[in-house]
Amino acid sequence: MKMFAAGLFIFLESLEFLEGGRLLVIPQDGSHWLSMRAVVEKLSEKGHEIVVLAPEVNLLLKESEHYTRKLYAVPYTQEELDHRFHLFANQHFVEVSFPTMIIETYSSTMFVLDLFFYNCASLLQNREIIRYLDESKFDVVFTDPALPCGVILAEYLSIPSVYFFRGFPCNVEHAVTKCPDPVSYVPRCYTSYTDHMTFTQRVLNLFVSSLETPLFKDLYTKYQDIASEFLQRDVHLPTLYRNGSIWLLRYDFVFEYPKPVMPNMVFVGGINCEEGKNLPQVRDWISQIIEENIHAQEESIDKIRHQH
Question: Which positions make up the signal peptide (predicted)?
Answer without folding.
Answer: 1-20
